[in-house]
Design a protein that fits this description.
By secondary structure, the protein is mostly helical. About 55% of the residues lie in helices and about 0% in strands. The chain has seven helices and no strands.
Length: about 180
C-alpha cells in the first residue's frame, strides 16, 4: 500500500511553515493590525472584535499608563468578555453601551470612539457616560483586571504581599522616599 501526498507539487512542509510564519509575523507587527491597529494574543469570545478593541481603548483612557502595553489592557477586557460569554445580560450591556458611545463619538467627531484622535476628546465622551451602568461596569472591572496582573506590579513599585515575608513593619514600612 502506498501513501499519496496531498501537498501541492513543489510545496514542501518546510516552505509552507516558513511562509506561514512570515505571514503571521507580518500580521502581528503591521501598523494597522488585525482589527483596530493593535494585535493581541487575546481575542474576543463573546463581544464583537470591534467592541473588544474599543473596550481596550476605553480602558486605556480610564486608567492611562504610558508604560503599560495595550496587551495588559486587553487582558483586563478579556475578563469582561468572558463574563459576557456566560451572561446574555452582560453581553447586551457591553454591546449596547459601546454602540451608544460610538454613536456619541460619531455625532461629535464623525468617527467611532476608538478612532477619535484626541485623548481629551475621548475622555470628554467618557465623562458624559460616567453615571451609566456600562461605564461603571467597565471601570469597576479595570480596578481588579488591570492592577491585579502580577507582571505589572513592578511597574507600579508594588512588591506584592508582605504577609508571608513577615509584614511591612520590618520590610520598608518607612521607605517612602517617593513622598519627599
Amino acid at each position: 500500500m502506498t501513501t499519496r501526498s496531498l501537498a501541492a507539487p513543489g510545496l514542501s512542509r518546510r516552505v509552507f511553515l516558513k511562509g506561514a510564519g512570515t505571514t503571521l509575523l507580518t500580521v502581528a507587527v503591521l501598523p494597522n493590525g488585525l482589527v483596530t491597529g493593535k494585535a493581541w494574543a487575546q481575542m474576543p469570545k463573546a463581544t464583537k472584535p470591534e467592541t473588544f478593541a474599543s473596550l481596550v481603548q476605553m480602558s486605556r483612557d480610564c486608567y492611562p499608563h504610558d508604560k503599560i502595553d495595550d496587551k495588559h489592557y486587553a487582558t483586563a477586557v478579556e475578563i469582561l468578555d468572558e463574563a459576557a460569554r456566560g451572561s446574555p445580560d452582560q453581553l447586551t450591556l457591553l454591546e449596547d453601551g459601546m454602540s451608544a458611545l460610538n454613536k456619541a463619538a460619531a455625532t461629535a467627531h464623525g468617527v467611532p470612539y476608538a478612532k477619535v484622535a484626541g485623548e481629551a476628546d475621548r475622555v470628554a465622551l467618557l465623562k458624559a457616560i460616567e453615571p451609566t451602568p456600562f461605564f461603571q461596569k467597565v471601570r469597576g472591572n479595570l480596578v481588579v483586571g488591570l492592577y491585579n496582573q502580577k507582571d505589572l506590579w513592578p511597574v507600579f513599585g508594588y512588591e506584592g504581599s508582605s504577609f508571608d515575608k513577615g509584614g511591612y513593619l520590618e520590610r520598608g514600612f518607612n521607605d517612602i522616599n517617593w513622598l519627599t
